[in-house]
């Protein structure tokens, strides 16, 4: 049965959060909505009874629904909420989210995105903007650090993702991918996202920890998979102390404790390993870097960084590959062009396919920056404490940047390509995803081996709507495709 929320076209979410646009304000495409009613602007600059100023600055208008409802909908269905709100209010617009009444201003125009990404890291704090992830990833996660602490951790982590290191990981990724694909059915209908999660989890465990006790990894695989499978209600509830004692939050807490214990044991074993200098896994690289640096990472910091790599490093790639398989199944000409290029040992068009998939189906729909002092973005000044959010969904669907933005067209990424403020699946600026190059390499390896082995055919129309898991968007029915042997 088709889910009720069309991620781009339905206004059901907009209706649910009671979004209405003031008279004279146009939507994201510069046109008024049919049948929308202008809302009254009350005394003191209120909009529909709600103040839209903060510390002397007027914030853009936005939904009036209760904060909890806005938070749940924005996290559960951002691919519907953000376009719907943009149509009602134009961009930028303001959401009122949890925790602590966070005001989130969504932006998407390249000039606005540039102002955010080029802003000083001391002013634009991403860690505070990502606070929802703290119970999952830990206080020392790279995604939650700011200022000098973030710069120090990134300096220590960066060598593990250098060009030479990624080239070295490629052979391991190829080996694990071949092993995993040999276990897939030779033909028939599959839920590709489920199989791909198993594949990419194996890749990240092997890349992060190297060759360790297989029995221990066997025990950890289902626990890690379940822990990162947290939905929006669980993610929000983890930050509320009393709920952590109740199911399903209590199970998530126990899983995270088990993972932390495992990570602590792996760190201690690496520190004692006489062959540490010869190991090429990420854990070994980080332990060596910490030992040789006066500002090296403590065990607690290492644990949280490893948790981030494991949690974010496999699910995001699996989801991107699942969307790729759906689009290739729906577009046989694109699929056959990829096959021909692979046969000639090329990669340019395959790279364009991956980039177009990440444009049309960004795995993470937005990034957050909390202002530590007033800042001007797109000619408008926002007060301290406001969270500014470059909306990846809106930026990637802009018809000004991408003609016919709803079409799947890898040719957009051949020749002159969009700028980093127009294509931003990995974020941007000083906070751009440190594993972006690794993710693109892994995606190419997986698609290459998939298309050498299988012809992909769609199930039904081949379309699936995005569904939220923690802060990522995966295919609603787990990417159902038919596999046919080549």
TrEMBL record:
Where on this chain does heme bind?
433
Q: Which Gene3D superfamilies match?
A: Cytochrome P450
Instruction: Specify the domain of life of the species encoding this protein.
Output: Bacteria
The answer to keyword Iron applying to this record is yes
> Which is an annotated Pfam family here?
p450
Required cofactors, per record? heme
State the PROSITE patterns in the record: CYTOCHROME_P450
GO molecular function terms attached to this record: heme binding; iron ion binding; monooxygenase activity; oxidoreductase activity, acting on paired donors, with incorporation or reduction of molecular oxygen
- What keywords are annotated for this sequence in UniProt? Heme, Iron, Metal-binding, Monooxygenase, Oxidoreductase
Q: Where are the annotated segments for Disordered? A: 26-47
SUPFAM superfamilies the record matches:
Cytochrome P450
Q: What family, per the record?
A: Belongs to the cytochrome P450 family.
Recorded protein name is: Cytochrome P450
What is the protein's species of origin?
Dietzia lutea
Recall the taxonomic lineage recorded for the source organism: Bacteria, Bacillati, Actinomycetota, Actinomycetes, Mycobacteriales
